[in-house]
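Q: Predict the assembly, please.
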Amino acid sequence: MPDLGKYADAVLSSYAVSLGLIVALVVLSILRARKVRSALEEVEARVKKDG
Amino acid sequence: MSSIWEYANPKKFIATTSRLLPWVTGLAVVLMTVGLVWGFFFTPDDFRQGSTVKIIYIHVPAAMMAINTWAMMLVTSLVWIVRRHHVSALAARAAAPIGAVMTVIALATGAIWGQPMWGTWWEWDPRLTSFLILFLFYLGYIALWSAIEDDDTAADLTSILCLVGSVFAILSRYAVNFWNQGLHQGASVLRAGALVGDTEERVSNVFATPLFISMAGFVMLFIALVFLRTQTEIRARRMRALLARERMQ
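A: Predicted assembly structure:
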């Protein structure tokens, strides 16, 4: 860990906030992708079955 | 020769981006890891800014992507307006939350960086203010898509909003040049390295190399997320169409 001196709070909080937001964006994008994909498969199967 | 408009076909778009997605994602992870680890652990402190200079490896790429995301949305919105390709409108919709997050990161890290350097979290400086307005445009754009049920009407109206918001995306980039005032410094990154002789305001090579790698990583992350999120929007649109057809029977 580098010695960040008196600015350690500023540097570390910048990285924490940014990486937290990026991870949240990626996770939410993946979760929504999975949810929509399975919901579409369900609807397509139902439509196919009902003709 | 194949045309770019082939990718306006949703099936072709999903098939192609599905093949590319793992590679783009891998590249994003590698470049961001190298850029951020190099910048955080292996660069010296700046003689004026101390260790706060390490914030540059996140702040600058995020600010760059905040503006470039809007630029991408502008291009895809124009494609929608002119050629009526649904994939392009959905790509703009998919990109907006990414741009909003990048704008928040740029604003937040800028405030955290500004406090010890300028003695204030916020200043109604031309660049900061235009970034804040750009963020509000992102929120308005996302809200407008959600508020309108008909996809084509939503795409029309959000495309117009995107054209209007482009003024602030341009201002976010060039505000410092237009108004020679405020706390935020002028452009220094693209004058990095040995490109110019002026050594006064340019970013030193010691900081520039990991910064450029981090910027490339953010670009790859953006592309990967746009691929994934556009696929999702295409599927969601198809699902809405099927459900609507089902209700009519």
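The radius of gyration of chain A is 21 Å. Chain A has a mean pLDDT of 94.
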